[in-house]
Specification:
Blueprint (H helix, E strand, L loop, with lengths): L3 E4 L2 E4 L2 E2 H8 L3 E5 H14 L5 E6 L6 H9 L3 E4 L2 H9 L7 E3 L6 H10 L3 E4 L2 H14 L3 E8 L21 E2 H13 L3 E7 L10 H19 L6 E3 L16 H12 L5 E4 L3 H4 L3 E11 L4 E5 L8 H5 L5 E3 L8 E6 L8 E8 L6 E4 L20 E6 L2 E6 L4 H4 L8
Parallel strand pairs: 4-20, 5-6, 5-13, 6-7, 7-8, 8-9, 9-10, 9-11, 11-12, 12-13, 15-17
Antiparallel strand pairs: 1-2, 2-3, 4-14, 14-15, 14-19, 16-19, 17-18, 20-21
Helix pairs in contact: 5-6
Bound molecules: ligand LLP.
Length: about 425
């Protein structure tokens, strides 16, 4: 994380020490850096400065209102996958005309909500969704802007749970079916064909799958043009990976150069849907060591758990763990685990650390797919969220209370 500093032996996010964050807001607590969020957005968006494009931040990666607010102020568009995300973008001051609506199962109410708001485009994933959208737009007396999300059958070479562009996946429209469906779309009274969309997977660290997918898409765009269907934009989705451990992430300048080569001189503008790349390394999860259980296998039980950060349990994901203050204890190999009653409740395995009970730990790269995937499992209130700006900390998500956990529920009459 670019905004994480060691100041006199204490870890700080920008100008705020993590010891102060814990003292003020407790643990577990997510801490985001505004400077890191802004730098990531500017780096991404700036890489495509020479090409007409719209960056639509993928809200699913981190949907905290303050995070959306930071991006909205920078002029970002947004990629949403539910009515809930749509409502968040509006609450954060996002521009509906820069929203694309993705997802394989949009409900009738969600389609209506998008139409009423006048969003930029629906990324349609099936012929049934197209028909439904046409019908609803008709009843509203409007026309629905549409891209078809096609499935280019490309291997993104990432974790199977986050691969989405292979033909066996549930996502998108099979390539062979795309042309006839575009023809049908072009003939619908309440639909305007705007573009084409792909999203091949997440945490992708190679450029080749993007090249392969983009070339397939361009072939289709040209075939459509020959059939008299001219597209305004190509949406290349998200998926650009970050460094968690020792990965070599895609260099954005090389990505942009490859795109410029493929799209230079063409009429279509581009759309991107980056999520992880904009937020992943702009946040950490702050947790405190509750108990140490040294032994043949030594466990450090911390107050964050799989309900706060599911990625290690779900994908065997590796997140760096750093003590907030250096200590003089003898280092040993620790299993960093949470209080949840599951053996899968680990945050990190086999880490050599010098620890004492009460120490604070920073779990890195927790700005994306962390808080958004958290749950109340074991009736654990969700963590607090703090956004640091220089030497100021803003509480942007207060810790859930135990009362809130069952406020929706009731006993039998
Ligand atoms: N666009 C679409 C249509 C998507 O489905 C996704 C992510 C994105 C954009 C943003 O992808 P990104 O740039 O963040 O890779 N929970 C998993 C990641 C799931 C990604 C789902 N789709 C994880 O923790 O690794």
């Amino acid at each position: 994380m670019s905004a994480l500093f060691d100041r006199d032996g204490t870890l700080c996010v920008e100008g705020v020490s993590l010891t102060d964050v814990a003292a003020r807001h407790g643990t577990p607590c997510f801490v985001y850096s505004r400077a890191a969020l802004e730098a990531a957005y500017r780096e991404f968006d700036g890489a495509f400065a020479g090409t007409p494009h719209l960056t639509c931040y993928a809200v699913k990666a981190n949907s905290n209102l303050a995070v959306l607010d930071v991006f909205a102020r920078l002029g970002s568009g947004f990629d949403v996958v539910s009515g809930g995300e749509l409502a968040r973008v509006l609450a954060a001051g996002g521009d509906p005309r820069k929203i694309v609506f993705s997802g394989v199962g949009k409900s009738e109410a969600e389609l209506r909500q998008g139409l009423e708001l006048g969003i930029h485009c629906f990324n349609v994933e099936s012929s049934s969704e197209l028909a439904r959208l046409d019908r609803i737009a008709g009843t509203l007396g409007t026309r629905a802007p549409v891209s078809l999300r096609v499935n280019p059958d490309v291997d993104p070479r990432t974790h199977p749970y986050i691969s989405t562009g292979l033909k066996e996946s549930k996502f998108g429209i099979a390539f062979a079916e795309a042309l006839p469906l575009y023809r049908r779309a072009a003939g619908l009274a309440n639909v305007v064909v705007r573009g084409i969309d792909i999203h091949i997977g997440s945490q992708i660290t190679a450029l080749e799958p993007y090249r392969e997918a983009a070339m397939k898409v361009l072939e289709l765009v040209d075939a459509l043009a020959s059939a008299g269907i001219h597209l305004e934009h190509v949406d290349l989705g998200g998926g650009i990976g970050i460094r968690y451990r020792d990965e070599t992430p895609v260099d954005l300048a090389s990505y942009a150069a490859m795109i410029a080569k493929l799209f230079g001189g063409r009429r279509e503008s581009l759309l991107f849907e980056p999520g992880r790349r904009l937020t992943g390394n702009a946040g950490i999860l702050l947790t405190r060591v509750a108990y140490l259980k040294p032994g043949e296998r030594s466990f450090a039980v911390v107050d964050a758990a799989m309900n706060d950060l599911l990625r290690p349990a779900l994908y065997d994901a590796w997140h760096d763990v750093r003590p907030v203050r250096r200590c003089n204890e003898r280092p040993r190999i620790w299993q960093i685990v949470g209080p949840v009653c599951e053996s899968a409740d680990f945050l990190a395995r086999d880490r050599e650390l010098a620890l004492v009970e009460g120490d604070l730990l920073a779990i890195l790269s927790a700005g994306a797919y962390a808080m958004v995937m958290s749950s109340n499992y074991n009736s654990r209130p969700r963590a607090a969220e703090v956004l640091v700006e220089g030497t100021t900390m803003h509480l942007v998500g207060r810790r859930e209370s135990v009362g809130e956990l069952f406020a929706r529920e009731s006993r039998l009459p």
